[in-house]
Structure formats: C-alpha cells, structure tokens
C-alpha cells in the first residue's frame, strides 16, 4: 500500500475531476480513482460529436478545470490536457469495493485487490450505477462480460446473451447479424415474454429466431457457468449447452446499495431519496463526502463547483462563500430591509417552518431555483385558474385565500411560516383559488424541482408539505365553510396509498364507507350491467368518490379503478360521517353530488335494453382510450378515421408552425372503431417527461400545455421517460423559401417538414445541437392548435378526457 | 361529474363534425339560399330580348360566378399557408364544397341556357368538369377513409414495407433447403413487386394476383409426400403471409389513389378554367 493521501476522490466525472484539480492546485496529496481507463466515463459514453451544454448560464463556474458548451470531444480533450497540466494523480481501472476505517485513516479497497489509504474520501460516482452481476456459480469467470463494444470481434463462438432488455436484444442481434462470423447465439429470458423491450426490437428478435440465426430460450436462467459450457435452469429441468462467451445485460443497480454499504444514511426509503449531507457535503459517516449527481445536482457546472468547494472545505476553508453568492445577492437586493445574503438565509430558515431542518447550503441551492419576492398589500401571489406548479412559503406577513370564486369576501388567512400553492405542485392542475397578500408580504416561490428536491432531501419538510396539501385539498374540494379544525380528525386518520394502473380502489357490491380522494392520477368508474362492464365516468385528480355508500349505507354501487398509477387519500367513513353531522352545509353538498351520480346510474339502468349496443360501444371505446393513456391526459389529439383522408396536412401544419419540425405522427398509434390516437403529446396530468429534466426546462403553460423551453440541454431523458413516444430529439432545420416561391418557382421543399436530404444540403453550420421537441398545443399561437385548424375534413379533434369519457354524453346524443 | 375540478383553458372549437356537416350544414344552407334567391330573381325578371350574360342580371351572375371561382381556387393556397388566427380549413372545405355546387345554378342561369361551340361554352364545360371531379372527390372522401383505416390495421406505410421485407428475408432463408423447382417459384414470387408507381396502375392493381399467388398454387399442388415436408409447409405459410401483406398494401395504395386521383383532374382543369374565363371575359368586353 502506498502512503496515505489527504483526499481520495472516487469517480472522475465533472465533480470528481474538479475536486482533484482543486486538490492538485492547493498542493494537497490526493488520488483520483477511476473505474474506467479514461476520465469522465459518463461523458465519454455520450455519442460521438454530441453537443454538451453548459447550463444554467447564470451560474458562475468556479473550478480549476475549464468548461464551456461544445462538442463532447472538445470538452474531454480540454479536461485531459488540464488534468495532466495540473498534475492530478489519477489511478485508472480502480473500482472501489469498500471503504473501511474512519476519518483520518480510511482504507479504500479496490476490486483489483489494491488498497488506498486516505484521510478523507470524496464520493463523486454519479448515478450511473454498476451492471447487475451474474450471481450463479462461475459467474466471475473470465468469459463473462457486461459490455459488448464491437459485435464483429467474435467468430466461431457459442455466445449466450443473458437479459431480455433492449441492450440484451440489440447485442444478440448484433452478434448474429453476419452469418459469416459463424457464431451460435442464444438469448436467455427469465420470463415468458419480452415485456420490457421495445416492440420493434422484439419483432426483429423473433424474425432472427425464425430465420434460424439465433435461439431464444424463454423461462430460462443460467445455473452454473463452466469452462466451455453453461448449465441452464429451464422450465422443464436443467440442461447443458456449449458456451464460450456470456454477455450479461441484466440492467444496472443504482449506486445506492454501495453507498449504504459504506455506512452512509439516506433521507428516506424512496427511489428519489438522496444521501444525508452536511453543509460541507459530509455524509453521516464522518470524513466521507458525496458530491455531484449523487448529491442531487445533475448539471455539470453545479458538479464542478461542488468539487471545488468540497476540497476547500476539507482543507479547512470554512469562510468560503459559495459560487452562487453574487447571484443570490443580486436576487435579494431588490427586497426591502437591506439585509445581507446570510441575514436573509437566517431569516428564511428561522421564519419558514418547512425550512427549519434545511442546512444553509441546501437553502442556497434551493434559492437558486427559487425567487424571493415582496408583495404589496392586496397584490395577488397567484390567481384562480392560473397554471403554476411552484410552491410559496411565507417568510414575513400573511396571505388571504379567496376560497369562493363567486364571493371574493370569503377568505381564509394563512400566516407567516406557512406554505401556499402546494396543490399545483402535487396535482399539476390549475390554481384552485386566488391568494393575495394580507399586508406587506415577503414570500419564497420555490420552483417545482426545488420543491421536489426539498421533499426528497428533508423528510420533515416532505411530511409537512404532504399533510398541508391533503388538508388543503380536502378543504378546497368540499368548501362549505369548513376550517382546518373541523377536518383535523379526518386528516389525522387519513391514509395515502399508491394504486397501480388497473387496480380497483372500490369494488361494486362490497360494503365499506370510506371516502376516497384522488390525489394524483385518475380513476375510471365502472358498473356491471347484465354481465357487461359499462364505463360510467372518468375522475381526474382532485375528485372524490365513495359518498354514496356512506350516505345511504348500501353496498358500493360501482367499481372505481385506477386508470394510471395513482395516489388516493382514504378518509375513514366513520370520522367523515361525524363531520357530516356537524356540518349540515357539507351534508347538503354531498347529497347533491350523490344525486348527480344516481342520475347517471339510473340513466344507464334505464337504457340498458334499448341502448345496449351503443352503451357497449361507448364502454369499449372509453376503455380503449384509457388504455392508451387518456387517463392521465389533459388534452389529446384524436383522429376520426372515418373522415381522415391521410393527407398529412396536420403534420405539415405542425411543422410549419414550429421551426419546421412536426411534433406528431398521424399514422402511428393505436386505433379502435376508427378512432385513432396518433403519436402526439397528451399533456399528461403528471408529465413523465418532467420527472428527470436536469435544467428543469419542462413546464406547464398557461393553457395546461406541457412545453419544453429553450434551456433544454438535449440530454434525452424526457424522450426516454415518455411512455407514449411523443418526444423526438432533433436539430432545428434551416429556413425554407417562402410558400409563394415554392408555388411559383418550385424552390425549396414545400409545405411541411423538409426531407433530411434537403436539410443537410442547406444546413447553415455543422453543429446545430439536438434538442427535445414535442407538442406545445401551439402555445402562443392565435387560433389554437394548427393540426386541428389545418384538417380539411374535420377528422382531427382535440379533447379533454373528462368531457369525452362520460357516459352522460350518450344522453346528450340521444 | 360532481366533485371534479373544472378545467378552463382556451376554448377551441372541438366539435366533432365532418366537413359536410360542419356547423349543422351552415354552408349547405347558405349555398341553397343563394341558389333559391338567384333562381327567383331569374324567374321574376323578364330581360329583353332574352336572358343571357349581357343583361344586368347576366352581368351580376357572371361577376358573382367569377368571384366565387377565384375564391374557391384559393383553397389550395389556404391549405398550405399556416398563418395564425381562428380560421379552420374544415370550414373552408365545407364552404368550398357547397358554394362550388351552387356554381352549377349560378353559371347556368348566367348563360341563360345559351350554349354553342365557342370560348364561353368552353369555360362553362370546363367548370362543369371541375365540379364533376369535385363531386367524385366528395364521394371518395365520404366513403374511402373508413376502408383505408380498417385495411391498414394500425400499421403505418413504413411498417407495411418493413413487414413485407421481413417476410421476404425469411422466405429467402427458408427456401434454401428446397429443390430447385420450388426455389424458382419462390424467387419468382420474391421478384413480384407491389404494382408500380403510376396512379392508374395503383388503381387497377388486383390485390390477389401475381407471381406470389402462382407460387402458392404451385405449392398447393405438391404431392402428399412433399406436402408433409416441414420445409415445404413453412415456405408455403410464408408465401401466404407474403400474399396477405401484398394484398393489404395494394388495397392501401388503391384507397390512397382513390382519394387523390380526382385532384389530377380537378386542379389542372381549374387552371384551364381560369384561363378560359379570362378569354371569355376579355372577348365579351372586346366585342361589346
């Protein structure tokens, strides 16, 4: 073992590299441990020539390494040169297995048997994770590999691919593509189908198998790896096949297991949870620090700044002002009170309940994604029906909520330290009430990402926000002059549960009197009539069900099933019944709601003879639409294929309204009874695309549309996260000649998206970064969505699911 | 549904009516009214020496018809110009259809039923040809889309080509172990392409005819011994799949062609009509 270094840095991505550079610059003894044979493996794995972006542009880069937007190759070259120039001590091929010892005398054990002694450890390993290993006996033999760089490398071999994901299928196809290589390729799938993979890949795989180029073995897993052969566990017992090479593509384990094995605590059990960190990035294990994406900051600049800062902290520089100091100072300058940044931070932490457990460093990061604003008395923080997903925390003063849209005089006051606007944050829907400053108010507006990060990193804040949001959702939903005190009993016993798509929360004929409030997602209400399931209605988030059984004491009259993965709040019926007794207004409202639902039930029952075929048709169509994601849609494009002449004018209009790129694929998508759901954004209520956007570039716009703004860095996360495949990555094409010059002189490619060839020939420069592109519902364009306006026959329509998916439509059409 | 939040957004006209029924036949009603009015005026007026294009009513009807024809021709521009604003191409199509049909009445009354072998009647004839092709288009638009949709069964054009290619690759592979005469049949079948590019060939291509059908027939007539050979069975099944895919694509192309073919008459004749109209108007004023 070499002599002990001051700092061992694990991972040479942007944060680790920046930390090592700082250590080298300060002359601290250090070692940078990198698993791969080159620096920055994640960026190295980007596709060739990819444009790396440098956002947020407002953030100052503070690092000894340079970084600016540019091609992957240029970024990596700069770093390689600077790492060499600074004399960073890198150890390649050093994968860390365990960290033993304590602060001052850690022993970092490497997979290759080596050891590194260090006083402190900085983990900058990112979130990429390690490939899942083959666990069976012999799984550690040399001919088991976890990556396939060049399928053309292997000839005359028996190769077994383990894993049924896209990576495994693509490897198997690559290895069997050229019969001249004479490889015998077998792919093993533990289950009976390839449900996790892209249908196109699965089709190619089956085709290759049908052509005899490879063998698919279903419900089969490796039992023992031996020299030259492989023992398999099949459905019908064990079997031995010849095997010279195993390519194991079984996904990767998130690094959490490793981090936890190092004795580091996380903020909670959720998948989104992050390691608990001190202001100096120190984990719950003294002397071990975590920075970078794993600390919750996925952008390169953030990471590099943290690398710099963590080494300064370790070196004893406790007075270091974070790189964001000037930004924060500027943001806070306009506020009354002439306070310094630190004074503001203390005030916010002291006054706002959800910030009480937040470290100053976390608060700084939160404020970078937030704004602190002062409001004059009476000035609105937000207005009813505004869209907005931000969360307001009141630092000084109090606000009034106008709870009744008909009567602005009916108000509820929310005091200093509390939060408002959490409903938009949780449900993604519009603001349910207008909130005005009750006097001079200073409030922090946290962006959705900042708020979600707060919930993920500070469990106490998360719990507080959840409770408040449930309380407010119920107050807002029932109205009727209820107060927090009235519903305290109900809230105390409320229970939030997550329901899988298709799972029933209420079953027709069962007894029970709980009230269910849909917090996220949506539900379909069904009733069995004459042995057939009739789709009664669709309930978006913010609706409640179950009041009928509570009020009339009869069994449940319908089944309520989750249309998509949803969250429901279960309010115990007995507590709710007591609340109804105390509140006659609420009782009347519940009775009225029940009467409306009874009418629908009676309508269906009454019409079942005459209208059975139309009711069937309606139910099947509604089910088809829900299966195709309308259950979480807020606005969706449908095409009536009895009218669609296939002219693709919708696609052309879309391209011509948006930089020359179409955001919809008319022909692709599912069809039922001539009702076609094209590949086009549904503007989901809880957009999957928003889940993991590093620059937070995806927002909900003023009309409920989900839009990607110009800060997109082209990482492709949203494209991968969208279950409907409606996001494409593409570069803005060059400008086309005018329509007139096309019509008169035939110049340019004409209306619609220009063909690839024309785009290449007329490109202004080589490097136009690819960005994520999706439907924005023609936001900001007068007249509304171009696809609908440009349809010559009226086949293209846009609908909101709650208007479409109600059986009462049948009554109107009668 | 009670208890549901209301979404308010930009309210678009999302009514689900086709172009013929647009706004409860708004343009049908307007066009019909226009026809009734001009017919009444024609019937009640008694121009001397006889009704024709040279009377005040003749000029009025002629001007109206000319403006209508020019406006109707602008649909092609409207369709391709994605400007902002609350216009709807469906409304334009609806108006185009009904006002175009109204031209039959307007132009006929304009002529005062005087026809001859001259440029005036040429313009009239061209207009009627444009309208007739348009009527064909309306019928196609009303009947073909449903069949087009059912036939493609959620497949896109690219997927159809892809699927045919996949069957062909499998056929090529599966035919290898067979005897030469079988391979020749399969090769002939593989050589059979769709139908060609021409619009007429696309219209006339018979879905179930050609080398693939012949190959299937040949395989069907195999001796019982041969028919029991799994390789033969497999190739025959693949040929059946190829034929099914081919038929689907031919039908798809025929439907698409039906939706387009009338435009090849409608649009060029419109330009000829406009040229003839210019000649008609100039000559009328020149010889006045």
UniProtKB/TrEMBL annotation, chain A:
CDD domains: CAP_ED, DMSOR_beta_like
Record domain 4Fe-4S ferredoxin-type: where: 635-667, 704-732, 769-802
Keyword tRNA-binding among UniProt keywords: no
Tagged with keyword 4Fe-4S: yes
SUPFAM superfamilies in the record: 4Fe-4S ferredoxins (SSF54862), cAMP-binding domain-like (SSF51206), FAD/NAD(P)-binding domain (SSF51905)
Keyword terms of this UniProt record: 4Fe-4S, Electron transport, Iron, Iron-sulfur, Metal-binding, Transport
UniProt xrefs under InterPro entries: 4Fe4S_Fe-S-bd, 4Fe4S_Fe_S_CS, cNMP-bd_CS, cNMP-bd_dom, cNMP-bd_dom_sf, FAD/NAD-bd_sf, RmlC-like_jellyroll, RnfB_subfamily
Signal peptide extent: none
Lineage: superkingdom: Bacteria
Cyclic nucleotide-binding domain sequence ranges: 354-455, 478-597
Protein name (database record): Cyclic nucleotide-binding domain-containing protein
Native species: Novosphingobium aquae
From TrEMBL, chain B:
Keyword annotations of the record: Membrane, Transmembrane, Transmembrane helix
Transmembrane segments: 27-44, 56-77, 97-117, 123-144, 257-287
Record-given protein name: Ferric reductase like transmembrane component
Species assigned in the record: Novosphingobium aquae
